[in-house]
Structures are given as C-alpha cells and as structure tokens.
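Section 4.2 – Deliverable D4.2 (structural model, holo form)

The reporting period included a commitment to supply a predicted holo structure for the target in complex with flavin-adenine dinucleotide. Inputs used:
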Amino acid sequence: MDLRLTEAQSKLQKEIRDFLESIKKTGEYPFTNDSLQLVFSPEFSQRLAEKGWIGIAWPKEFGGQGAGYLERCIILEELLKSGAPVGYHYLADRQVGPGIIHFGSDFLKDEFLQKMLNAQVSFCLLFSEPNAGSDLAACETTAVEEGDYFIINGQKTWTSHGHSADYGWGLMRTSFDSGTPRHNAFSEILINMKTPGIIIRPVINMVGLHSFNEVFFDNVKIHKKYLIGEKGNGFRQIMTNLVYERATIDRLIQNYSTKEALFEYVKNTEKNGVPLSKDPLIRDGLARLEVEFQVGRKYIYYVTTLLDDGKIPDYEAAIGKNFCTLFEAKLSDLATNIMGLHGLIMPESPEVLFKGIVAESYLMSPSYTLQGGSVEILKNIISKRGLKLASK
Ligand SMILES: Cc1cc2nc3c(=O)[nH]c(=O)nc-3n(C[C@H](O)[C@H](O)[C@H](O)COP(=O)(O)OP(=O)(O)OC[C@H]3O[C@@H](n4cnc5c(N)ncnc54)[C@H](O)[C@@H]3O)c2cc1C
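Output (structure tokens):
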C-alpha cells in the first residue's frame, strides 16, 4: 500500500489550500473549531459546490466527480484544519448522498442528489432517542402505514442541525408484529423538517451553544415515496451509513486549531524565566501527541483506501474512530493542563487567548467519544467483527 499522494492529488491539495487561504482573508465566512457541528453557511458550501468539491467521491453517473474517497479525504482535511464552515453540506456529502446512491429509489436520486451537489439542500440525522442511543434497535418512534403515507409519532434527540436542516434522515419502527426479529422492524424515511406536526426544541451544550435539538413528531404525515431502500431493512442500512460516518478524518481534526494554539503557546511562553518549550515533561507530552496525530492520520488514509476499493470497512472504521476521538480528548486535556488558567478562559473574557478555543474544545471533548458511536460500542464492533470474538 502506497499512501503517497499522486501528482494530481497533490495539485488538488494545493488548490484547496490556496482557495481556503484566500477566502479566509476576505473575512466573509466564520472559520472556527468544530465547524461541522457548529457552523451552517449555505453560501460557503455553494462556493465549494462551484469548485466540484461536494460529492467528489460519488460516481459520475450520479453527478459526482467519480474521483475517490482519498480525494474527498484530502479536501476534508484542509477544510477542517482551517475550521471552514462546512455544516450546511457536510452530512449530504459524507453519508446522506452515499446512502441514497446505495439504497435510494430513482425518485429520491432525482429529487436530492443534484441539489446536494449544488449545496441547495441540507440534512440532519434523526437516529437517537431518549431510550435508544447506543442500542438503536430500542428505537420507539413509529411510522404507521396509512394509504400512500406514513404517520409518524415519537421523539428523537441530540439532533445536530435539526433546527436549520431542510430534511431529516430518520430511523423509524415500521413493524409492530411481536414475531418480527428486532432488527427487521425498522425503516429509514426522509422527512421534510417543515412538515406540520414536527416540533423542534433546542438543547444547549456545555459550551453554551445551540447545535443539537430534541425533535417531536405528532401525527406527521410523510408520503411513502420518501422511504429509503426497503421497508424493514433500515437497521442494516444504517450500519452501512455509520461506516461512512466513522471512516472519515473529521474525527481526528475537528479541533485542530487547539493543537496549533497549544504548540504556539509552548513556543512563546516562559515560566519563571524558562521557556515552556525547554520543559522535558511538556516536550514529552507534545511529542507523544504528535506521534498519535500522525498515526491516526495515516490510519484514516488507509481506511479511506478501503472505501475506494469498494469495501465497507466496518471494524477498520471503528478502530479509526476509536483511536482518533481518544486523541482529540487527550489533546484538549493536555492543552488545558499545560496552559493552566489561560486554557480555561472563555471567549467573552478580555484576558482570553486564542479566542477561547482551548476552553471550548475541553468542554466539547466528552462529546467526541460519544457522537457517531461511543468508544465502548466501537470496541464491541472491533472485538466481534475484527477479532471474531463471540458476542456477549
Ligand atoms: C455532539 C453530538 C452530536 C450528536 N448528533 C447526533 C445527531 O445528529 N443525530 C443523532 O441521531 N444522534 C446524535 N448524537 C447522539 C449520539 O449518537 C449518541 O450520543 C450515542 O449514540 C450514544 O448514545 P446515548 O447518548 O444515548 O448514550 P447511551 O447509549 O445511553 O450510553 C451511555 C454510556 O454507556 C455506554 N454503553 C452503552 N451501551 C453499552 C454496551 N452495550 N457496552 C458497553 N458500554 C455501553 C456508552 O458507551 C456510553 O458511555 C450526537 C451526540 C453528540 C455527543
């Protein structure tokens, strides 16, 4: 396996770097840590769409560039390193588009794929519920068939961008027969978030920001043409979908500016007249961090090559997400330890350093190892599918 970039890939990398550098200078768009979670800018996403950088890995027959997941990874790495505001198109590009390409009807393909490529439609994921997070098969939201429609009732939670997205990709119970095996009882349905009967309430996170929501369904009527794939196959489909969620570099670099801030702080700060950069314990901590960053980065590039080989790398993606989210948690922990009180100051204070990103990423960090599957659940996948150990 050769992980060196080809000439064309290096050119693409330079092109996106130059583009981001020039667009950042204009000050037109907000660049920040955790931008995929926190910032929603249709205008910025449309600038990327004009370049053909949304859906670059999708096959040409569906409007994509047919380039490959490695090219997507190169683009994404630069976008997230710079903190570009990718929230609007992010889910469409990462998993909703590939999900529709894999499982969607011709109607769904015609209705959505081109709009996604043009950054004209945005999505949220309606999977988790108050009693169904890790155990998605405990999902209780129901979609009951009534003529040409599903009537949906229930509640979802932790819905990122639920308040701003146009459509939600939902997992719903569609079989109520006690004889149906648990995993055959669910279907996936695309839901227009403006449909009457949907109530969205904000959930404010520890940083004090509104990124996720509770979503309630009260007799919400959705036409059956919005069913994704086969009725009863939703659980298996979602597992494929989650591989696309876990196999990406975002889990390593969504708080990359914290790493840059930490290194800058250490290089430019003295304690009792001695530069922090000469402290052996700090040097040791930073070197260990860098080793993990480089290992995580190479591993994600490797998992990406598996996607390009047409594989669904379930346990490999689980290893990657496990390693990378633990790296991210360590990064904010180490930054807070080394920067002491400076690392705890929130953005609104006049004393703040690096716009408060270190304190913010410390507060965000518990979520990294939960979102998209917790480390414990990933370890179960690695044990079962990777190591072939017996199920618990
Ligand atoms: C920032 C963020 C954004 C999110 N965005 C979305 C979104 O857009 N849409 C969406 O649907 N969901 C979203 N989620 C929800 C996320 O998918 C869930 O938090 C996650 O699946 C865990 O579910 P839970 O929170 O209910 O925790 P639980 O499942 O209740 O787990 C609690 C703890 O118990 C452990 N645990 C549970 N089961 C086992 C087991 N079998 N073995 C060992 N340990 C176990 C878990 O590892 C965890 O530490 C988001 C979460 C976060 C933090």
